Amino acid sequence: MCITVYLVSKTLDIKLIPKIIKLVDKKFIFIGFLLMIFYLTFEVIIMNILINSIQKIEEKFLSIKIAMMGFYYNLVTPFASGSQPMQIYTLNKYGVSLSKSTAIVTNKTVLFQSIVTIYCGVIILLNMQLLKSKLSSIILLINIGMIMNIFSLLGGILIVLSPNAMKLIIKMSVNLLSKLKLFKTLNEKLNIINKFIDEYSYSINLFVKNKKALYLSVILTIAQLTVFFSVSYCIYRAFNLNEETYIYILSLQAILYMSISAVPTPGNVGANEIAFFMIFASVFPKSIIGYCVFLYSVFVYYFLVIVGGLFTVQTHYHMNKEKIKI
Predict the structure, then answer these.
(1) Which of 67, 97, 284, 324 is a plausible cystine mate for 289, CB 3.0–4.6 Å?
(2) DSSP letter string over 157-185?
(3) Rg, the chain, Cα only
(4) Helix 83-93 crosses helix 62-76 at what angle (to 10 degrees)?
C-alpha cells in the first residue's frame, strides 16, 4: 500500500483534483458503478443457483449474505483464503450441513476458477503479439498466474476423474516433504487431506449432474467477468478518451487480472495499481494516469470492501443469534 501511495502521489497533483472532477464525464463514472452493482448481482444469482442445487433453504437473502461475505473476506485476506472458510461457517450457521456447505462453496470456487482461467487464457493467446511488443515486462507475471491457475484447474479435474490417483500423488508429495524438518508433521494430516479429496469429488460430481444449474452458472459467470473487465473502459471514456476500442481495453483488463492473480496481498492491493500503471501506460496519458489508477482502485477494491463489509457486519450480528447445525 505504501508503494501504491508513492507511485500515485508521484503522478497525481492534488491541487488539480477539482479541475479533474470537472473534466471527468460523470455519465461513465455512473456506468462504472452500475457495472460493479451488476457484478455483485451476478455473484448473488450464481450463489443462489449453487445453494438451491444442493439444498433448498428457507432463510431469506442467504445468497446475498454468502456472496457479500465472500467478496469481503476475499479482499482482506492473503490469496483470498478467508472467504471459503467463512462462507462454509455461515452456511452451517443457517442450517446447511457441513458437508453440503463445503459442496456449495467448493462448486463456486471451481466454477469461477475454471471460467476465469479459460476466459483470460483465450484473451492472452489472442494478444500474444501485443504482449511481446508492448507488455514484455509482465509476461513473467502472466506466466506465473496462468501456471498456478492451470495447475489448480488440472488438480480439480484429477480429483473428479480419479480421486485415488490424486490421493496417491498427495501421499508421495507428503512423504517427500516430510523428510524436511519444516514439513515433518504433514504425515499426520493425510487422513484430513484424503477426506477433503473425497468431499471435493462428491460435491463436484453432484453439481455436474445438474445440467441446468451448471450451464446457467457458466453463462452467468462469463457475463460477470465481462462486466468486471469492462470497468476499465468506463474509466477510459470518463477521461474523454476514445481512440482505443472496447475490446482492446477489456483485453488489457483481463491480462491485468491474470498478471496479479499470483500476488498474495489481500485484494491484490499494490499489485493491482502497479500492474495498471504498466499495462495501461500506453492507453492513458502520463498526466492523468495517476487519477485513473485511483479511480480504478475505488471501483474494484474500495467499493467492494465497503459494500461487502456492511453486509458482513450485519450478517455476523444476526448469526450470533443462530445455533450451529452440523
Answers:
(1) 284
(2) HHHHH-HHHHHHHHHHHHHHHTTSGGGTT
(3) 21
(4) 150
- AA letter at 212: K
Is 260 in a helix, a strand, or coil?
A: helix
Rounded distance between C-alpha atoms, residue 311 and residue 294, angstroms: 24
Nearest to 239 by CA among 296, 298, 304: 296
Q: Does residue 95 contact residue 57 with C-beta atoms inside 8 Å?
A: yes
The three cell numbers locating residue 314: 450485519
Do residues 107 and 207 lie in contact, with contact meaning Cβ atoms separated by under 8 Å?
yes
Q: Judge whether 254 and 232 are in contact, CB under 8 Å.
A: no
pTM: 0.86
Q: State the Cα–Cα distance between residues 295 and 124, nearest whole angstrom.
A: 25
Grouping H, G, I as helix, E, B as strand and the rest as coil, residue 84 is: helix
DSSP secondary structure of 186-225: GGGGHHHHHHHHHHHHHHHHHHHH-HHHHHHHHHHHHHHH
What confidence tens digit (pLDDT) does each residue in 105-146 have?
988 988 998 999 999 999 999 999 888 888 888 888 888 888
Q: Rounded to an integer, what is the distance from CA 126 to the centroid of its chain?
A: 22
Residue 123 has phi, psi (to 5 degrees) of: -65, -40
Vertex 190: Cα angle to 187 and 194 (nearest 5) = 165
Mention every residue, 6+ apart, whose C-beta is less than 8 A from residue 289: 11, 277, 280, 281
What does the alpha-carbon distance between residue 287 and residue 285 come to, in Å, rounded to a whole number? 5
Close Cβ partners of 222 (under 8 Å, ≥ 6 residues apart)? 115, 119
Q: Which residue has the cell 483485453?
A: 251
Give whole-number Cα distances, 23 to 18, 235, 243, in Å.
9, 13, 18
Its sign, for the CA torsion 80, 249, 24, 41, is: negative
Section 216-242 average pLDDT:
96
Residues composing the chain: 326
CB 25 within 8 A of CB 237: yes
pLDDT of 28: 96
